[in-house]
Amino acid sequence: MCVDACPEHILHITKGLVALDPEAGECTFCGECAAACPEGVIAADGAMAHVMQISDDCLVKAGIACMTCRDVCPETAISMRPRIGGPFLPELDATSCTGCAACSAACPADAIHAVERVPENV
Ligand code: SF4
Ligand code: SF4
C-alpha cells in the first residue's frame, strides 16, 4: 500500500518486501506512505537510515564548475568550499542530511550515493 501511495515512486517491492531506492528520486517526507500503512510501521521523524556521500565522479573534481546539489538541498546540508585554482568544492554535512535524495536525483554526474547512517559516515 505504501508503494502505491508514494507520489515520487521511490518505493518498490524487492524479494517480496518493500524497499526504498534513494537514487530513484527525492523523498519529500509527505507522509503518504505512513498514512497508507495499516500497520503503522513507518517512522515519520523526517530522516532516513542512510545519508548521502559525494564521490570523486563530481564534475568539480574534473575542473567543471557545478553547484546543483547545493542549490537543491532543502536542509542546506551542502556548502561550497572555495579553493585555489579550481571551482569551489561541494561539501556534504552528513549530520544535517535527511537522506531525501534531492541532491542525488539532480546531480548531472550521478556522483552522489547513499551510505548507511552509521557513526563513521556521519
Ligand atoms: S551536483 Fe554532482 S557534479 Fe554538481 S557539484 Fe554536486 S556532486 Fe558535483
Ligand atoms: S539527501 Fe537531501 S538533505 Fe541530504 S544532502 Fe542531499 S538534498 Fe540535502
Automatic annotation (TrEMBL):
Keyword Iron (UniProt): yes
GO MF: 4 iron, 4 sulfur cluster binding; metal ion binding
Ranges for domain 4Fe-4S ferredoxin-type: 16-47, 64-83, 88-117
InterPro entries per record: 4Fe4S_Fe-S-bd, 4Fe4S_Fe_S_CS, Fe-S_Ferredoxin
Keyword Iron-sulfur appears in the UniProt entry: yes
Alphabetized UniProt keyword annotations: 4Fe-4S, Iron, Iron-sulfur, Metal-binding
Protein's name in the database: Ferredoxin-type protein
